[in-house]
Design brief:
Blueprint: H1 2-14, H2 21-32, H3 37-43, H4 50-89, H5 108-122, E1 126-127, E2 133-135, H6 136-139, E3 167-169, H7 174-183, E4 190-199, E5 210-220, H8 225-240, E6 246-253, E7 256-265, E8 282-291, H9 293-298, E9 307-314, H10 315-323, H11 328-331, H12 336-339
Parallel strand pairs: 1-4
Antiparallel strand pairs: 2-3, 4-5, 5-9, 6-7, 7-8, 8-9
Length: about 350
């Protein structure tokens, strides 16, 4: 009992106000540590006679409560003072002029790709992306362009070193259509759009060795040229304006038959004639046609049961039309001043 009283008196001397954080930690070790004064008193309870254990326990609990109350009060006080000092030292003067925050922006090719994908997804299509490194078979042969075919000259691309005539950088996103048809084992309906990079050995103001294409493919029973025309009319009107007129001109593509070039009325002069449409009133925007029976056969479809249509266009070309970009090389120039022009502040 006397030892408890002695520790209690000592605690009264030590429990002074305004102790520092380090002093408070030292007091905790002194009283409540493994060899602390209160801890040692707890270990001595077995030595106290049975008739005195109750009183000893009551006094010891009072001592522990007294220390814990002191410790928690001082700890809270120290934490409060520390927080107040921090807030005071890190105070922000809201009257000072703010720093101009640099804002990023989406690339015009990203914007135009999103527009295309959103439109076709709303029409029930699925976005399908294939690899950029392809086989000669998928890039040409299964698209009805055998080796030695003159149509290859217009799509001269880049072959991988030591893999000539085996692997190459794809010259068109039609390779993704081949893969989609072959992966469709049950030969059910297909409605896909395939955006992505393609590569050809071209480079001038309107051509680049790397550019973006998007192609669409529909395979089903009883698909006709009327379905293709309705799809492309809707597509052109949604992207270029409701007053846009569309016309089809006969053309040739090895992988479609019949094939057409698709023109739209000039959105700059409304068909009257200007420098953009070269005074014709029309602008060529894409190629399309009904999928060639040979392509259907090579991809596992019976052309007597299934029909389909395909279309493709350059995303870069549409971006140049939409954003008034005069030189395709500007799109890939990595100039931040060019990118900043397309900052859409209305998008979160």
């Amino acid at each position: 009992m006397n030892e408890i009283q002695n520790v209690k008196e000592l605690l009264k001397k030590d429990a002074k106000e305004n102790v520092t954080s380090s002093e408070l930690n030292e007091l905790k070790i002194k009283y409540m540590g493994k060899k602390g004064l209160i801890t040692e008193l707890q270990s001595k309870i077995k030595e106290v006679p049975n008739e005195n254990k109750k009183d000893f326990g009551i006094l010891l609990n009072e001592l522990k409560t007294e220390f814990n109350t002191f410790y928690e009060n001082e700890k809270a006080k120290i934490e409060k003072e520390t927080l107040e000092k921090k807030l005071k030292s890190e105070a922000i003067d809201i009257t000072l002029p703010s720093k101009k925050l640099k804002r990023g922006s989406l690339h015009p090719m990203t914007l135009i790709t999103e527009d295309f994908e959103d439109l076709f997804v709303s029409m029930g299509y699925t976005v399908y992306e294939g690899p950029e490194i392809e086989t000669d078979e998928n890039c040409f042969q299964k698209l009805n362009v055998p080796k030695g075919h003159p149509a290859r000259d217009a799509q001269d691309t880049f072959y991988l070193k030591d893999e000539f005539e085996n692997f190459l950088l794809r010259s068109q996103t039609s390779t993704a259509q081949v893969r989609a048809m072959e992966e469709n084992k049950d030969k059910g309906p297909i409605r896909i759009v395939c955006p992505g990079k393609v590569y050809r050995r071209d480079e001038d103001a309107t051509h680049s060795h790397q550019f973006m294409q998007i192609e669409g493919l529909v395979i089903d029973k009883d698909v006709s040229m009327a379905d293709l025309k309705g799809t492309l009319e809707l597509f052109c009107k949604k992207l270029l304006g409701e007053k846009t007129e569309v016309r089809f001109r006969p053309s040739f593509f090895p992988f479609t038959e019949p094939s057409v070039e698709v023109d739209v009325s000039c959105f700059k002069c409304a068909g009257k004639g200007c420098n953009l449409c070269k005074q014709t009133g029309w602008i060529e925007v894409l190629g399309a046609g009904m999928v060639h029976p040979n392509v259907l056969k090579m991809c596992g479809y019976d052309p007597n049961v299934y029909q389909g249509f395909a279309f493709g266009t350059g995303l870069d070309r549409f971006a140049m039309f939409k954003f008034g970009i005069p030189d395709i090389r500007t799109i890939y120039g990595n100039d931040i001043r060019f990118i900043k022009q397309f900052d859409r502040k209305d998008v979160d």
